[in-house]
Design goal:
By secondary structure, the protein is mostly helical. Helices cover 80% and strands 0% of the residues. It has one domain (6-256).
């Protein structure tokens, strides 16, 4: 496994399990798993960490999606259509990323995330109940924002895609946090498959390591999905706020101190 020590492998397994848990609850597990891979393999190009991260994440998000589908009702067809649009948009974002410095985008994303955190804090009932009429205009807006916009962002930069999807689905489609998380998992499976296909074609996936981490990630995803279903929207909302704070810190560090 590219001369990785047992200590480093154990640390990667723990990171993968925690990332799977975070992803299953609210998205954003890549904030933990991707840096761990970059630290473990500093001699390899970053593309290998990105490719391996996708190979691991696709297993965890699939496990979480199956768990949600068995335990809570949500529109799987809508989620799959959103996922297809997001996957196509992420490919476009990946091509766009080649000509854009991520340092230009990070400050904009930080401001957006701080706005999201303020919104969730000031709206304590946001995402708790869900329901209500969803007009065709709102559905189209969801495809534009959650499918095209966030899918494109996933290709350009990536961190926090699941978090943004949850917020968009709650705001635009009147979903509660649990239903939004379930829908997000299906969308994430689609975008991860698309990205993994590209990384596989480029030969930047550590296939000797990925299955081990994928099993850990899947275990964390099962646990996270069950906890979200059991504890409800309030629990997901709390994890969302913690994840947003972590994402802001990570992006700020990359922008100004790394």
């Amino acid at each position: 496994m590219h001369d990785i020590s047992l200590t480093a492998l154990a640390a990667l397994c723990v990171a993968a399990a925690l990332a799977g848990w975070i992803d299953a609850v609210v998205g954003g597990g890549g904030l933990l798993q991707l840096p761990a891979l970059l630290i473990a393999f500093p001699h390899l190009p970053p593309a290998y960490a990105l490719g391996t991260n996708k190979a691991v994440a696709v297993v965890g998000t699939s496990a979480a999606a199956v768990t949600y589908a068995r335990k809570t009702p949500f529109d799987v067809r809508l989620a799959a259509r959103l996922g297809l649009v997001a996957a196509l948009a992420s490919v476009g974002g990946a091509f766009f990323a080649a000509g854009v410095e991520s340092s230009v985008l990070r400050p904009l994303i930080i401001v957006l995330l701080l706005g999201v955190a303020a919104f969730v804090v000031l709206r304590p009932h946001f995402g708790h109940t869900g329901g209500g009429t969803v007009t065709r205009r709102r559905v189209l807006a969801a495809f534009a924002v959650a499918g095209v916009g966030i899918g494109f962002y996933d290709g350009v930069l990536g961190p926090g895609t699941g978090t943004f999807l949850v917020i968009a689905l709650v705001a635009l489609l009147n979903m509660n946090m649990v239903t939004a998380s379930a829908t997000t998992k299906v969308v994430n499976v689609c975008t991860n498959i698309g990205a993994l296909a590209m990384f596989t074609w480029q030969g930047t996936v550590l296939w000797a390591l990925a299955p081990v981490l994928a099993l850990c990630n899947m275990g964390g995803a099962f646990l996270g999905a069950h906890m979200a279903l059991k504890r409800g929207s309030g629990f997901v909302r709390a994890v969302l706020l913690v994840t947003v704070v972590g994402l802001v810190g990570k992006l700020a560090y990359d922008q100004w101190w790394a």
